[in-house]
Structures are given as structure tokens and as C-alpha cells.
Amino acid sequence: MRSGDVMNQVLEAAVLETAAKVAVGAAVAAGAAIRSGLEGAVAVRAKGTAGDLVTDLDLRAEDIILGRLRRAFPDHHILAEESGLLDGADSAWCWIVDPLDGTNNIAVGLPVYSIGIALCHLGTPVLGVVHEPTTGYTWSALRDRGATGPRGRLAPARPPRADAGPILAWLQGYPVARTDPVARALRLTLEANARRVIQLWSPLLCWMMVSRGDIDGFVGYRAGLVDLPAGSIIAREAGVRITDWAGAPLDDRIDPDGGEIDFLAGSAEIVGELATLVKSADGVTVTGLPD
Fold first, then answer.
1. Which residues, listed in sequence order, are joined to residue 127 by a DSSP beta bridge?
2. Residues 167-281, CATH architecture
3. Are the C-beta atoms of 216 and 160 separated by less than 8 Å?
4. Quick check: pTM over 0.85?
């Protein structure tokens, strides 16, 4: 290995060690602000026409996170849920920030939400942090170094429960309409073949559940970029297999200008079963519902 390559690796490792500490601190501080804000009235307004919402807590948490990231890494790019893409002098590094994953839950008084912060190097996620303010739990992962949570290192997801069918999580992006024929057919197919299909409205927590083995699989349809890297890198490092809908390994490189993503996640066995279900859903037509 050339000396220049060694120096670059040492530099990257040093950046990641600092980045992990900064990201965890930022997520915990943002979580404390959200928790405190929930003690009073929460201002909620629509964001776009697809049913997404934003609250004053989203904005407050994002300000805290962006402030800490900018102070520690002023040259890095940042892609944030509410602020969009913020340029920096060093385009090799890009943070992806979801300051409040579960805003719709907050809006209806359901305390199911999380915070996600990821760091990408040359488009590849190399660090992920997810924090759940209601429990105080934090999960994190560095690429090729494994994932950890409140109880230590995360182990590979356990095999599916063959006796009663798998427990699955479902994620569909906000642009997906209620009348979307793909979503209708696939949801019906999954429901018919699973013990339970859950939709938390906080996909980062679904990633943590599949990483811990609490659920068997996770299916995403037209998922947004901000929802993906913080949770998916933790899942990968925990031993979860992540593929496209055909069962091929999913390229996890992030393009800030990219589109939506379809994915399957779980053990190798459950991902194979899910790919078969996705294919079978192509022949399913749901009728009798409003268009």
C-alpha cells in the first residue's frame, strides 16, 4: 500500500472517530429539546401536498444538529430534512440529517419518533446514529466496524418465525398515493403471508427493530433518501441483508440528487421470501376501493 493511501486511511479514521462523538452528542441534544418541547403546545403545519407535516420541534432539533455539525466540520456538505442541501468546501463528505423521524406521530400525540444522523464519504455511508428520545436509547455504527446499541454490540437478526409467519415492517414514501396500485397489491400480499405488518411512521425505528431481531423483515417502497442511511448502515453492520426488490444486493451509495428507493431487509432467508412475495404481487389487482 502506498504511503499516500495509508495517510488517507488514517485521516479518514480520525475524522470518523470525531464524527461519531459529534453525531451522538447532536442527536441526544436534539432529542432533549424535542422531549422538552412536547411538554407544551406543538405548532404543526402541512409540508407539501402529499400529507407530510413539519412542526416547530423538527426545526428546533435541526437547528441544534446543524449547529454542532457546522462547528465541528465547517467544510462538509449537509443534506437536512428541512433545510435541504447545504454546500461546503469539501464535497467528499456529506451529512444526512433527519431531525425528527415520526413527525406525523407527534402530530397525533403518539410518542414514537427518533432522530437520525448519517455521514457519507464519496457517497457511501460510513457512520450512522439513531437516537430514540422517549427511551434515551442510542444506536450507532461505523462502516466495517460493527454496530452497537444500549446493550452493546448488535447481533445478526434471528431467523423468521416459521410457525406463525414473519413480523414485517412496511415503509412507503410520502409521494405514494392511497390509490397507488403497487402499494395496494404489495400490502395485501404481505398481510396475507405475514403474522403482522406494522407501519410505525418512523422508519429509523423499524431499522433498529430489524437490527435487533425484534421483527423479521422490512419492506420499503419509494423511500426517501433522508430516511435511509442512518438506519440502514446500522442494520448492515448488525448483519442484516439489504437488497432491491429482486433480491440483489442494494447499492447503498447516496446521491443527494437521487430519487426514491425500493428495498428489502432481513435475514438472507426472509429476504428471499420477500423477493418472491414482491414478484407475486405483480399479479394482484385490488378492486372495490375508491380510486
1. 119, 142
2. 3-Layer(aba) Sandwich (3.40)
3. yes
4. yes
